[in-house]
């Protein structure tokens, strides 16, 4: 039985081997085809390796397992009786009948598996290998690929610049050739790039690079010049060579022209000059929110971390921080320059910088705001590139003062100024707690009791504003009720334990904390809008939600006063903060707004209303003639003229040179950013101008290129003329008849 399983494993390994061989045949054929096309053993080997890897990843022959092999044998070997899977099960897990069947299947597979071939496509893979090899060999021998390259590229693979005569009559004249050509690119010093000698005439270099050309000819020439975007620049003759040096300020095109001793003019192909811009530094700030808020009691520090990168090197980076103090017309700004913890070395292309911004060190107080951003400079010359990050904000929250703002309307703040005194109570309480170790017990209790009285006075003020009346106002001054007389006599018999620590604020004159306002009501401008005091729940300008908040604040003030009276200011302080928060919310919510100032329409005549008459109403119509600017008009004319020349309806005329020159100038403006994209089309236009290649094939190539270079016109809505035959017209009339 074990031998049957071993035969099954051998069959599975043969199946995997066939899959690997099949993949090898396919990739060998592709590698040979690539080798013949590129004529390079390295490229062919690389194509073979890459294609083999991809094909193995697609087929993954290593995933072929014994379970799939067992299913295949059950489907193709009748003697297996669909019991091959028993060979994969442990013998102790099988019943007696299953063991007997397993023994039978094992003997059958010993004889049958040697005659069965695993499924494969080796024949198909061999045919593909032969087909690709023959095709690649034929393409290589016939040089079809080289011809395609030559037809698609005006510039030959020759190392030197090639010249052609501009006059077709001079075809028999011997054209001077360049024997030595040196192109030198000197990069700006801040890039730290070495000077390079290149052989490619299409040049790409960093902006502000210095490019020099040195040309030597095999025959004498009278003058040599460079044509750079319509500007003719003569070359300087030094001994037997001609030299010129130009700064690469912007992208463009150039070509060379020269005259021989006979006065015939020769011109070269068109080449591109591509100025690679020096990009500004890139900034990335990580782990910091756009807005950061701090409470006054918090540690007011900001952990700033930034990554700065540049293509050629960083020159300088720092933080610009602006502190804003005050509000409205009294706002003041102070700007500071902060440097990072790390020292920035000039020329680094990438660095990570950090900074701990301490708001206390910037002398910021409650309500102040901090605006900061990062500026980074690179080493570009003569003017550095600069990058500025987004602005980040840090604010110390002020729980006392909020700016009053009304959007588009006028407002009246009906809250009195004494609402802000709760903050002063908090400050005095905190100062008392701080001074407790350094003052006497008597002084401590005296100050705590005084603060309790101030808290009570503030509570009574708020109670009056809510509509609550003072207890002492219920009876006339100087007249005591029986209950009050009894309390008075009882009080005299007791010793006042607070007498030596406090003034007599809690005596008979307590009702004077809330001054009588009967005399002032006539002068109060809001008196007519207030409810009367008959109903305490209704004597307020507040809505129900604000009354609830104010009553909650009064209740909290009771607790704050209690602990101050008990000489425990530490327990009173949380209640004072809660009361301050509620008071501030009420102050910012309770506003009286006046009517919005807006547009008042003119009155409508009553006799013309609802009549439906539009006699005096005219439609507004404006007519204006605009001159449509065609920025690529010459290109459109050149396309039309090329169509005539392609159809051989006319011959090339001297006036056509003006058309193609103007089209080349318009195309050149489009090609400034990407010179290589339109180089072939510009070269074709130049060949047409110079009469070096006025053929139908060149006409077609240039026309197609001009079409593709034209920007897409914006669709303008308007009426269009469409063809309508007689049947459609009759059909439309019939529809109108029955409409």
What does this entry look like structurally?
This protein is α+β, with helices and mostly antiparallel strands and 739 residues long. It is built from 16 helices and 22 strands. A hairpin with a 4-residue loop joins strand 10 and strand 11. The protein is extended and about 120 Å long. It starts with a helix and ends with a helix. The relative contact order is 0.06.
Explain briefly what this protein structure is.
The protein is α+β, with helices and mostly antiparallel strands and 739 residues long. The chain has helices spanning 2-38, 41-59, 66-76, 96-112, 122-142, 144-152, 421-435, 441-466, 482-493, 544-565, 569-589, 633-646, 654-670, 679-689, 696-709, 726-737; strands at 163-165, 178-186, 196-198, 203-206, 209-217, 221-228, 231-234, 236-238, 241-248, 252-260, 265-268, 271-276, 282-286, 291-294, 301-325, 332-338, 348-358, 369-378, 386-388, 392-396, 411-412, 592-593.
């Amino acid at each position: 039985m074990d031998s049957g399983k071993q035969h099954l494993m051998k069959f599975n390994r043969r199946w995997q081997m066939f899959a690997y061989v099949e993949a090898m045949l396919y990739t060998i054929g592709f590698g040979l085809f690539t080798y013949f096309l590129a004529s390079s053993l390295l490229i062919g080997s690389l194509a073979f390796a890459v294609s083999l890897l991809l094909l193995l990843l697609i087929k993954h022959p290593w995933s072929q397992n014994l379970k799939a092999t067992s299913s295949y044998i059950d489907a193709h070997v009748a003697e297996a009786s669909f019991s091959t899977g028993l060979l994969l099960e442990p013998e102790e897990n099988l019943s007696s009948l299953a063991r007997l069947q397993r023994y039978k299947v094992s003997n059958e597979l010993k004889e049958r598996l040697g005659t069965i071939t695993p499924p494969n496509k080796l024949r198909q893979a061999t045919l593909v290998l032969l087909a690709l090899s023959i095709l690649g060999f034929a393409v290589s021998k016939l040089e079809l690929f080289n011809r395609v390259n030559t037809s698609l590229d005006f510039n030959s693979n020759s190392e030197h610049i090639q010249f052609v005569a501009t006059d077709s009559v001079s075809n028999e004249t011997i054209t001077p050739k360049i024997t030595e050509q040196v192109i030198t690119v000197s990069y700006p010093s801040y890039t730290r790039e070495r000077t390079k000698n290149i052989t490619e005439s299409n040049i790409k270099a960093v902006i502000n690079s210095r490019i020099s050309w040195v040309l030597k000819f095999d025959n004498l020439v009278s003058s040599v010049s460079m044509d750079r975007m319509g500007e003719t620049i003569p070359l300087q003759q030094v001994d037997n060579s001609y030299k010129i040096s130009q700064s690469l300020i912007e992208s463009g095109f150039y070509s060379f022209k020269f005259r021989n001793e006979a006065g015939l003019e020769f011109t070269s192909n068109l080449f591109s000059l591509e100025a690679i811009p020096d990009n500004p530094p890139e900034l990335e700030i990580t782990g910091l929110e756009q807005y950061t808020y701090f409470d006054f009691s918090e540690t007011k520090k900001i952990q700033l971390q930034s990554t700065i990168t540049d293509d050629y090197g960083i020159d300088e980076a720092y933080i610009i921080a602006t502190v804003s103090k005050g509000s409205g017309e009294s706002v003041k700004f102070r700007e500071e320059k902060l440097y990072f913890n790390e020292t920035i070395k000039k020329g680094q292309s990438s660095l990570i910088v950090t900074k701990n911004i301490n708001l206390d060190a910037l002398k910021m107080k409650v309500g102040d705001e901090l605006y900061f951003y990062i500026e980074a400079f690179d080493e570009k010359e003569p003017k550095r590139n600069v990058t500025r990050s987004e602005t980040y904000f840090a604010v110390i929250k002020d729980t006392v003062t909020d700016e009053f703002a009304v959007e588009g309307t006028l407002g009246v703040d009906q809250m009195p100024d004494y609402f802000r005194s709760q903050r002063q109570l908090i400050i005095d309480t905190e100062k008392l707690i701080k001074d407790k170790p350094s003052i006497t017990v008597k002084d401590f209790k005296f100050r705590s009791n005084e603060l309790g009285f101030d808290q009570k006075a503030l509570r009574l003020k708020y109670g009056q504003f809510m509509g609550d009346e003072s207890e002492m106002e219920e009876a006339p001054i100087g007249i005591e009720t029986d209950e009050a007389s009894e309390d008075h006599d009882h009080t005299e018999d007791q010793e006042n334990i607070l007498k030596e620590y406090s003034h007599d604020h809690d005596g008979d004159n307590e009702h004077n904390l809330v001054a009588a306002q009967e005399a002032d009501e006539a002068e109060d401008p809001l008196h007519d809008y207030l409810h009367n005091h008959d109903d305490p729940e209704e004597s307020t300008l507040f809505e129900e939600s604000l009354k609830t908040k104010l009553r909650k604040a009064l209740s909290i003030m009771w607790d704050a006063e209690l602990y101050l009276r008990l000489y425990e200011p530490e327990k009173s302080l949380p209640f004072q903060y809660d009361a301050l928060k509620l008071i501030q919310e009420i102050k910012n919510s309770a506003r009286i707004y006046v009517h919005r100032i807006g547009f008042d329409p003119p009155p409508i005549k009553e006799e013309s209303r609802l009549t439906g008459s539009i006699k005096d109403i005219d439609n507004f119509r404006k007519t204006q003639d605009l001159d449509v600017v065609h920025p690529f008009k010459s290109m459109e004319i050149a396309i039309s003229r090329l169509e005539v020349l392609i159809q051989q309806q006319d011959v090339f005329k001297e006036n056509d040179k003006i058309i193609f020159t103007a089209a080349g100038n318009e195309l050149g403006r489009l090609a400034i950013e990407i010179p290589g994209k339109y180089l072939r089309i510009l070269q074709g236009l130049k060949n047409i101008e110079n009469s070096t290649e006025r053929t139908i094939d060149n006409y077609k190539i240039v026309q197609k290129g001009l079409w593709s270079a034209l920007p897409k016109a914006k669709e303008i809505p308007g009426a269009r003329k469409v063809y309508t035959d007689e049947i459609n017209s009759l059909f439309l009339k019939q529809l109108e008849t029955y409409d």
